[in-house]
Amino acid sequence: MQFSSFFRFNTLSALLFAAAFSISFTASTSVLAASEPAAAGEEAEFNAAEVILHHIADAHDWHLFDLTNEDGSLHPVSIPLPVILLTNGNLDVFMSSAFDHGHAEVTKGDRTYKLDHGHVVETSGASVLDFSITKNAASMMLSIVILLLIFIAAGRSSAKNMGGAPTGIARFMEPLVVYVRDEIAIPNIGEKKYKKYMPYLLTVFFFIWINNLLGLIPAGANFTGNIAVTLTLAAITMIITNVSGTKTYWGHIFKPHVPFWLYPIMIPVELIGVISKPFALTIRLFANITAGHIIILSLISLIFIFKTVMIAPVSVGFVLFMSVLELLVAALQAYVFTLLSALFIGLALEEPHHETEHAH
Hints:
The chain is mainly alpha-helical. Helix content is 57%, strand content 12%.
């Protein structure tokens, strides 16, 4: 069995995902929530909740670490990202470094912008449409590049070894592709129809897995812990599921097997079920990834809360354990999301049962 076609299909799927998520992040940038940094030289009491929320929130720059200046103040080191704003028909583009980590305002023509708890606002109160490339959006683009490089390389390697043993990165990728095919796609969708949905299932599996792993890297973005991301993924699954739905699938919704007088109750219930499935996908991935980050950051915060090195061995030990567990969760959540997506698609492809056995 050759898998070069799957890899080629996945390359196209990854490009479509890039477009879809770019659109989704246009909406998500309006709900950023970053903490304001303390003023230079100011010593404030450690606020664990503020620090944790700041680290898991999206931002207009990619914060890496802080340097201590000669006067003892902290100097944030970050990668500036493009700020793209549309205000009263005027398009303003500049780098986030112009905000000086929230300490400066940016003037473009008669418009002045500032950061207000992570939001870009116009000081006169004008309505601002924010199309900026935020930290999460930049992380998404990075994961798309990684996904493309992996599958293009695996596809080329597979094409060169037609009928032979896989080599290079294809040796690592092929067992995973086979697993998704044999353990997820075929059992839930069926052997006759699974190939049509393999590109999507492979893309969503590796896309979530890669982004989960990127989120575990120090200074990484909490991409899959953003509900706009998980909602978009779930919405794509819902669209594929309902577009693929057969007459039997829609018949169960609009003509359920109950007495006619129960239709006014059962039809709304069935329609709620159509929405609740992607809602469950959204919350499951968002909650698990976000909870993992919060737990790790909370354990680290214990050192600063108790202000003693005695708690450090216990805290670091638990952080190490949780970090290893998060590696498992990263793959597990990608598997669960892909499995449920395949299950929902398979249920939508249900065909009517022909009762030919009664002929004899």
